[in-house]
Structures are given as structure tokens and as C-alpha cells.
From TrEMBL:
Pathway: Carbohydrate metabolism; galactose metabolism
One Pfam family from the record: Aldose_epim
Family matches, as Gene3D superfamilies: 2.70.98.10
A single GO cellular-component term on record: cytoplasm
Function summary: Mutarotase that catalyzes the interconversion of beta-D-galactose and alpha-D-galactose during galactose metabolism. Beta-D-galactose is metabolized in the liver into glucose 1-phosphate, the primary metabolic fuel, by the action of four enzymes that constitute the Leloir pathway: GALM, GALK1 (galactokinase), GALT (galactose-1-phosphate uridylyltransferase) and GALE (UDP-galactose-4'-epimerase). Involved in the maintenance of the equilibrium between the beta- and alpha-anomers of galactose, therefore ensuring a sufficient supply of the alpha-anomer for GALK1.
Protein name: Galactose mutarotase
Molecular function (Gene Ontology), one example: glucose-6-phosphate 1-epimerase activity
Secretion signal span: none
Length: 114
């Protein structure tokens, strides 16, 4: 995601530039990456398994992990589960779509285990 701008919701919505090719998670993370590529490959660094996300008309990609403290606030989340989780979602978040009456917005995503 090198070169993508992101909104970091864990740092009061500050805007940053991503300088890494591969995004890794090692802390509480809640980011909205703006104007991201149409396809992402997510790799489990332990198992090596991969998943592909393909998106249409969804310009942003959200990356989230509660990490230690926030995971404690989620009742059905085990204390040691946070390092094994990354939530990656396609969306139209940084500039929400406003639909006047009678109009249509179409978007989709395809999730594929590789």
C-alpha cells in the first residue's frame, strides 16, 4: 500500500502517508486507507495462507485490529486472540456516498481464499 494516504482513527484522525509495501499489525490499528488499489492480497504470516480482496467502486480500504486493551472490551474476544486477527474491509468511507432520492450506487467486493 506504499504511497496510499490513510486516516489513523487511533491518533485523532490524523492523516499519514504509508511508506511500506506490506502493512503489518503490531498495535491497536484503525485506519482508513484512501484511494487504494482494486485488489489486495492478505497473507497470514504464520501459515502462509492467502486471501484476495477484489473491489469495485469502493475506493477505500479499512484495516483494523483491537490489540490488547481494546480486545478486553469485546466480550466474546479471547484475551490472546488479537494477534491472530486482522480485519480488512473494502468501503467508501473517507468520502461517504450521498444518494439523492431515486438514485443508485452500486459497489461490490469478492473475497477469495487462495
Amino acid at each position: 500500500m506504499r504511497g496510499c494516504t490513510y486516516i489513523d482513527k487511533t491518533r485523532e484522525g490524523a492523516l499519514y502517508q504509508e511508506h511500506r509495501d506490506v502493512v503489518t499489525i503490531n498495535e491497536w490499528t484503525d485506519r482508513i486507507y484512501q484511494n487504494t488499489p482494486l485488489e489486495h492480497i492478505i497473507t497470514n504470516v504464520v501459515s502462509g495462507r492467502k486471501m484476495r480482496i477484489q473491489k469495485y467502486n469502493l475506493v477505500d480500504t479499512v484495516v483494523w485490529n483491537p490489540w490488547v486493551e481494546k480486545a478486553k472490551e469485546i466480550p466474546d474476544f479471547g484475551e490472546e486472540e488479537f494477534p491472530n486477527l486482522v480485519c480488512v474491509e473494502a468501503g467508501h468511507v473517507s468520502a461517504p456516498v450521498i444518494l439523492p432520492p431515486g438514485t443508485v450506487f452500486e459497489a461490490s467486493q469478492i473475497l477469495q481464499v487462495m
